[in-house]
Amino acid sequence: MIRVKNVGLQYADGPEILTDLSFTLPDGSFHFLTGRSGAGKSTLLRMLYLGQRPSRGQMEMFGKDIGQLEPYELPELRRKIGVVFQNFRLISHLSVFENVALPLAIEGRNEEDYARNVVELLDWVGLGDKMDQFPALLSGGEQQQVAIARAVVASPQLLLADEPTGSVDAEMGERLLGLLIELNRQGATLVIATHDTGVLASHRHHAGELHLDEGGRLRQFPPVRAKAG
Amino acid sequence: MFHSKILPRQMMGARLLPLIIAVNVYLASLAITGGLALIASTGQWSNEIEQLVTVQVPPEAGVSGDAVVKSVLGVLREHPSVAKARPLELSEMEALLSPWLGRNSAIKELPLPQLIDVELRQGGEIDSLRKRLEAEFPGVEIDDHRQWRGQMLALANTSRLLCFTITSMILLAAVSVIVFATRASLESQGDLVALLHMIGAHNRFVAGEFQKYFLRLGLMGAVLGLMLLALSLVAINILIGDNPAPWLMRISFGPVDYALTALPLLSAALITMLTARFTVLRTLAAMD
């Protein structure tokens, strides 16, 4: 469960980018994060993956008040969060396998312990035959698949994706979205930032919406129920 | 385990870092070596000269010059402070005076004092010897080169101070260059540091990875610098040859001197490693 109450975010002495945010994300829920470009979607995602702490208000994640945590306590929480970055952020000198296994390697786990899981995951996302390749040799869609595999390899409780369909064609976009929704069905809370109206229209019946307006304020909407008859 | 590959094999700017470190370690070690050689040579030279005195027996000191010289020699050889006493041969006197009088001069005809080279024992004191000689042989003089030695020692001390200052400046410059170059290399890895941070790496893990990487670069550069120094010292010793000028002694060190010369090696490796560690930790702290 993620609870955000009266949260504001500003950089240094500048104006608030996010203002009075209050929302709740129940465990296993699925939400789209929408708003116009520059409304603060990426900033809100950044706050949710603990890349930035709120300037004010209260944010509770995994039963902890984020504002009260010491910096050394944050990495353990970040490991419960999987992030698919808009620009993938793959490491160019690591192979597909190594990029995906990175969240497990930084925990100090042995490769023998996780190699099978990583291989299975790569098969699942459709990159089983490319695990030794380097990101530069992959297409945009394949890079996005690697980024998704890396985000989910450690079985996160919260999965955040920033425009995951933005740089791929519609067919690949639908396939990637299918992967994320499958993980949501397995129990992960899912938040997808998008301004793709087609994606929204296809999935709003089972996903809530967090809408950021231009003033950095947020409105939360439940899934849209299909009208009877 | 691909742990060791999390950082790229080559970071931007890091290729030059070992070379920069090598040059700085070479200069710093060379300056230290020069300082140590100067300290050793002035110390040795000062010790040698401190134990040497010259006794002058003037020609008018007695009726028979040879007899007086023998008596003076007798007194000198019996004295507990004296290790050795030897009258200079006529040929040696000629050699000493040849710059002024020329070769084949009529030196035998001149009323020159007889010079006696005296070598004192370790810790031997000269005052009682001087008193006894002056009392028994009026006109006999003892020259302990004190004034000349004082001037030379003052010059040597000034040179040492200058050498120490230059060494300190080179070390300071080396530290600045190494810190700057290490930070520049790290800046190119800002995205990687941020990614590791965002996926839940502990700060000490990230700092440790960079620390190991830069320690390796630091050691590579420092060892290269020290190898260049060793080559330079071998070349200097060959150039000086077996018969160095009195003011240019062959460089031969003891264990402490070698440890001091290797100091820049360890310092460079440590500075590089610690700069990497603290730069990464500071970057990560700013992210939290």
Features:
heterodimer, A: 229 residues, alpha/beta, 6-stranded mixed sheet, 4-stranded antiparallel sheet, 7 helices, 10 strands, 32% helix, B: 288 residues, alpha+beta, 2 domains, 8% strand
Quick recap of the structure?
With about 230 residues, chain A is of the alpha/beta class. Chain A is built from 7 helices and 10 strands.
Structure description:
The complex is a heterodimer of chains A (229) and B (288). By secondary structure, chain A is of the alpha/beta class. Chain A is built from seven helices and ten strands. In chain A, the strands form two sheets. Chain A has a six-stranded mixed beta sheet with strand order 6-7-8-3-9-10, with helices on both faces. In chain A, β9 and β10 form a beta hairpin. Chain A is globular. By secondary structure, chain B is α+β, with helices and mostly antiparallel strands. Chain B is built from nine helices and four strands. A four-stranded antiparallel beta sheet of chain B has the order 2-3-1-4. In chain B, α1 crosses α7, α5 runs parallel beside α9 and α6 crosses α9. The two termini of chain B are 29 Å apart. At the A-B interface, α2 and α3 of A face α6 of B.
Q: Please bin the fraction of helical residues of chain A.
A: 25-40%
Largest interface, with counts of residues having CB < 8 Å to the other chain, equals:
A-B, 29 and 22 residues
The largest sheet of chain B is: 4 strands, antiparallel
What is the β-strand count of chain A?
10
* Total number of beta strands of chain B: 4
Multimeric state: heterodimer
Bin the strand percentage of chain B.
Answer: 5-15%
